[in-house]
Amino acid sequence: MPLNKALLNILEDLSLNEKEILKKNALDEAILASIGDALVVVDKEGKINFVNQAFEKLVGWKSEEVIGKPVVEVVPRETEDSQESLFNERVLTRVLSGEIVTADLANPFYYIRKDKTRFPVSSIVTPIVLAGQIIGVVEIFRDITKEKGIDKAKTEFVSLASHQLRTPLSTINWYTEMLLAGDAGKMNPEQEKYLGEVYQGSQRMVSLVNALLSVSRMDMGTFILEKVPTDISALLRDALNEQKFHRDQKLISLDIAIEKDLPIAHVDPKLLTMVLQNLISNSVKYTPEKGKIGVSLSSPLGKDTFLFSITDTGYGIPKSQQGKIFTKLFRADNVREKDTEGTGLGLYIVKAIIDNSGGRVWFESEEDKGSAFFVEIPRGDPGQPAKDF
Predict the structure, then answer these.
(1) Chain-centroid distance, C-alpha 345
(2) Is residue 349 left, alpha or beta, with left meaning phi > 0 and alpha meaning psi from -120 to 50?
(3) DSSP assignment, residue 314?
(4) Which residues contact 260 (CB under 8 A, 6 or more apart)?
(5) Domain 148-220 has what CATH class?
(6) Phi, psi dihedrals of residue 92, rounded to the nearest 5°
(7) CB 295 within 8 A of CB 256
(8) Which of 55, 187, 198, 334 could join 51 via S-S bond, C-beta 3.0 to 4.6 A?
């Protein structure tokens, strides 16, 4: 074949390949642009490389206005109470650094538009990996204002229904206690057994109603954090004593380690009691007979905090479900299989209270070996005002 003809064939092939590549790139961009949720691609420096049409429509910025700019400046993020999130707290920043981040549905956040209005967000952030290195991230997010409105309506309904249920339940409990105490005459053993079952069922219903009311108050922002000087050692012992009957029934041993001469804490005793009751009752509930529970309280050196730990030799939490453990109404599969009673609200309440107290809660768990929950709370400022959440 003559050289000129060969060169022409090569150039023709290259031209065809270039057309195919351009066609494929155009198709890829068309697919990305047509995604219904907002999409933004950033490089390893956190600067925007690409946004789709939904992004432009949702936040008000045009593509040409944001390419090359830091995404955290283009779309600032705020918490529920309008506090701006720091750069290192942003999910995309943590993903870029190699951290595996699980969405925390208990703590919704907001993005700020170009016109300074804000909207609640549901977001998924995924790293872009090339040759084993993270070179950027892709974030897909959407406005969940409508979903939050529906959730608020449901919360208000639950609150109203729960309030209405409290009065008849109080009446049932009062008269049942009177009958069991013999105020209306002595009952035979069979009658006493049946009435005892009624009373236990009513008590479980009261517990559920109280949990629903607590959750609805948190969701509506009507829970008030009132910090007062508190002996948290006594608070912990009281919470443990409430579970003594259930521990003894299951022959569960208890190991207590409370540091001596702890300073007075400035906390909300009612809410902290609720936290401790939930964690301790979970340990008892989800630990089989003749198991062990360990409870400790200390003030770590060099830190103005208190640290609680509640460990058990119970059922544990499946690894695949640990990211959901603090979400509302969630109960792990292994617990459901054992028909253990529970609402799936306790740990949601715990996390909401601790987060709004300026503390943190975390856990370690292995299925069929047990769990360890840790709560760290600040000692508190005695001059701190009451806070709504």
Answers:
(1) 11
(2) alpha
(3) S
(4) none
(5) mainly alpha
(6) -65, -35
(7) yes
(8) 55
Number of helices (H), then strands (E), in the chain = 12, 15
pLDDT tens sequence across 134-191: 888 888 898 988 888 777 777 777 677 767 777 888 888 888 888 888 888 888 889 8
CA separation for the pair 123, 110 (Å, rounded): 10
Architecture (CATH level 2) of domain 224-388: 2-Layer Sandwich (3.30)
What are the structure tokens assigned to 370, written together?
């047990």
> In whole angstroms, what is the distance from residue 84 CA to residue 266 CA?
26
* Nearest residue to 139 (alpha-carbon basis) of 180, 175, 96, 203: 96
Q: What six digits make up the tokens of 376?
A: 């760290």
> Structure tokens of 217?
């108050």
Joined together, the tokens standing for residue 153 give 């309506």
Exposed/middle/buried for residue 116 (C-beta within 10 Å: 0-12, 13-18, 19+): exposed
pLDDT in tens, 245-289: 889 989 999 999 999 989 899 998 888 998 999 999 999 999 999
- CATH architecture for the domain at 35-143: 2-Layer Sandwich (3.30)
β-bridge partners, 127: 137
Say whether pLDDT at 315 is over 90: yes
To which residue do tokens 């053993």 refer? 189
Q: What digits encode the pLDDT tens for the residues 178-235?
A: 888 888 888 888 988 888 888 888 877 777 777 777 777 776 666 677 888 999 999 9
